[in-house]
Amino acid sequence: MRSKKWMAAALAMMLTIGLSACSSSGSGNAGGNSGGNERAGSEAAKPDPGASGTTITVLNEGAVAIGVGELSALLPEKKKSLIADETQNPRITEEDFTYTPGQPAKPGVFPYFYQSIMSDILQAKHITVKTEDWGWGEPLIQKQTAGFLAKNMPDIIVGETQMPGFAQQGLLEPFPEEMAKEIRETIAPAAWKPMEYDGEIYGFASQPGVNSLFWNKKLVREAGLDPDKAPASWEELAANAQKVTEAGGKKFYGGGVYAGPNAGGYLRYGTLLVINGGGFADEQGQPAFNSDRNVETVEFLKRLNADHPAGLMVNTNEGAYFDAFKKEQTAYIIDGPWRAIESAQLGIDYGMAPIPLSEGGKAGNITIGAAFHSVPKEAKNKEAAFEYIRAMYSKEIQTLIADTGVRSPVLKAVAESEAYQKAHPEMYQHYLAMAGNVQGLPTFAKESSKVWQIFGDAVTKSIMTNGDVKRILDEAQKQAEAITK
Q1: How far is CA 338 from CA 134, 213, 427, in A?
Q2: Are residues 233 and 299 in the same domain?
Q3: What is the CATH number of the domain that holds 322?
Q4: Kindly report the CA angle at 140 between 196 and 113, in degrees rounded to 5?
Q5: C-alpha closest to that of 455 among 306, 234, 303, 269
Q6: In terms of residue numbers, what domain contains 320?
Q7: Positions of the region Disordered (predicted)?
Q8: Are residues 68 and 199 both part of a single domain?
Q9: Which residue, among 158, 183, 182, has the nearest Cα to 172 in the 3D structure?
Q10: Per-residue pLDDT tens for 332-343?
């Protein structure tokens, strides 16, 4: 058992990477201790609360939040407010609340339908949901850290980059054995693999994202390239970006991928590290910055930098990078699935495809915008909490996610159906990218925030100066090891 002093230090370490829900986010994979490893139960984990019922407290997810209070009481008020909100374009009307499974669902009322379906499923099991809002990003991490120390936690917490670290610290309840088996067999890996540690699953995301390549067809066409053809390799992507930059005459550029020294950058260009056989850390949470494959990847990033406005690729404000694509100032971008709906709303004629591979590389990805739900060790109603998570991957909820066309469902029975493939071919490709080697951002063995900054600064220096990339990453590795070992 760890001492309270060690635990406090470890939890302080978790105050590392916080981002807002849809600017992205991922999670991590590396070492720690599962702590006690007591199960919530196997077959007995499915509750039968009886007529008296059970009330569970759940943190708002952000993307599907509907308010604070008892969910069944909040739903009618949410419906009224959506209909009455005159600032919406287009306006939401009563007719928009007639969702039929298998038919297009209006994204604007998605949170209402999501929570309404959840409420119906859980009420049938005599479970009432009360929601709380602890914010997102860094404020959420701080409140969760304080809650763990005080041993005062909701029944279900939610988060992104911080969640795997909580699992490694032994602060989360492992999923019941039969539930974990069901998830492994029926759910895309991106929804749970980043929350797997030491053979146990500690979290689930109902609609995670992974990265894809997007491009502006108009700008690609102006460069004399086929706008309907995705680059087949890194070499072709770099060559295409260069041609777009030349055609743009400083009015628009080829673009590529955001590489700022922050989580927004790590979540995007980290996918290129994975594809090329590199990465951020080993299984023990030790830095792995200066591998030959990482050097190759950073050199590729340096090449792409020439096809951006000066300083944009490593701008510490990630919003500026995505604004450039929205304003049709850059042609190529690597981002999460929301880039599709945002581009369509802006009237951008876009293409979407899997990220091309490097020479000798293999398909891989990093979760982004993944809101993982977990049950803390200190939860008072663990069995009912796991029923809530079961409802998240039910056919009803996953069909709703599929019908919105904004993100991919993770339930294989829904995503792999012929109807879904035909109705949402781009999101089906995104679903396929959620399988295989899908990772999250790791938690380093010690002082993660400092170690991340060392790597981010090294990549920025490699991209923006004429310094030798290998030497710069060697120095970063040395600095990081001085902290973690």
Answers
A1: 24, 12, 10
A2: yes
A3: 3.40.190.10
A4: 75
A5: 269
A6: 210-367+446-484
A7: 26-54
A8: yes
A9: 158
A10: 999 999 999 999
Number of domains in the chain: 2
Task: Average the pLDDT over 461-474 and give the result.
Answer: 97
190 and 222 part of one domain? no
290 shares a domain with 360: yes
Closest to 273 (Cα-Cα) out of 238, 255, 300: 300
When pLDDT is averaged across residues 475-485 and rounded to a whole number, the result is: 97
110 backbone dihedrals φ, ψ, rounded to 5°: -55, -50
Per the CB < 8 A criterion, the answer to whether 19 and 263 are in contact is yes
Q: Is pLDDT at 252 greater than 70 in this prediction?
A: yes
Assess whether 383 and 248 both reside in one domain.
no
Cα angle vertex 477, ends 296, 164, to 5°?
Answer: 90
In SS3 terms, the chain reads as CCCHHHHHHHHHHCCCCCCCCCCCCCCCCCCCCCCCCCCCCCHHHCCCCCCCCEEEEEECCCCCCCCCEEHHHHHHHHHHHHHHCCCCCCCCCHHHHCCCCCCCCCHHHHHHHHHHHHHHHHHCCCEEEEEECCCCHHHHHHHHHHHHHHCCCCCEEEECCCHHHHHHCCCECCCCHHHHHHHHHHECHHHCHHHEECCEECCECCCCEECEEEEEHHHHHHCCCCCCCCCCEHHHHHHHHHHHHHHHCCCCEEEECCCCCCHHHHHHHHHHHHHCCCCCECCCCCECCCCHHHHHHHHHHHHHHCCCCCCCCCCCCHHHHHHHHHCCCEEEEEECCHHHHHHHHCCCCEEEECCCECCCCCCCEEEECCCEEECECCCCCHHHHHHHHHHHCCHHHHHHHHHHCCCCCCEHHHHCCHHHHHHCHHHHHHHHHCCCCEECCCCCCCCHHHHHHHHHHHHHHHHHCCCCHHHHHHHHHHHHHHHHC
- Taking a C-beta distance cutoff of 8 angstroms, is the pair 334, 24 a contact? no
Is the pLDDT at 392 greater than 60, yes or no? yes
Residues 339 and 361 in one domain: yes
Question: What is the predicted pLDDT for the residue at 42?
Answer: 35
Residue 205: how many other CB atoms lie within 10 Å: 27
CA gap 78, 12 in Å, rounded? 37
Question: What is the distance between the alpha carbons of residues 263 and 452, in angstroms, rounded to a whole number?
Answer: 9
What confidence score (pLDDT) does residue 52 get? 61
283 plus 340 within the same structural domain? yes
**pLDDT single digits (tens) 101-118:** 988 888 789 999 999 999
Specify whether 319 is located in the same domain as 457. yes
Pick the residue with more confidence: 224 or 48?
224
